[in-house]
Amino acid sequence: MGKGFHGRIAFEGFDMAPVLKNKCAGDIDIARSYVVVTAADGYRSLFSGAEIFEHANGPNLLLIDRQDGKDLQKGDGRFRAFIKSDFFIDRSVRSVREVYYNIIN
To answer: 10: alpha, beta or left, given left = phi > 0 and alpha = psi -120 to 50?
Structure first.
């Protein structure tokens, strides 16, 4: 079963919201937008527009490139996607390969 608390980890990286806003033409329809982050091994996670662009506690979807002041560990790839509001790490994506932004019609 679980192994308990392992201490705190300090991540460094980028808030994805301004990056996505900068790349999208025109206004973003938060209610209909979503982002899929894909890993090198094919693992995918989906994030709603509200989670990314309107989270009450500030930046939420982060693209991490450093952990505890060092580059990510071997096997984590160059970037890791991390959503701060999740209690569990199920949607954390290591070795990020692609980030898709889309709007539901």
So the answer is: beta
DSSP 3-state assignment of 22? helix
Residues 6+ apart with CB under 8 A from 51: 60, 61, 83, 85
Three-state SS at 61: strand
Q: Which domains does the chain carry?
A: 13-103 (3.90.420.10)
pLDDT mean for each 10 residues of the chain (105 residues): 74 88 77 93 94 82 90 86 84 93 87
3-state secondary structure of 35: strand
d(CA 102, CA 93): 18
Using CA atoms of 75, 43, 12, 63 in order, give the dihedral in degrees to the nearest 10.
Answer: 140
How far apart (Å, rounded) are the C-alpha atoms in residues 100 and 79? Answer: 15
Q: Which amino acid is at 98?
A: E
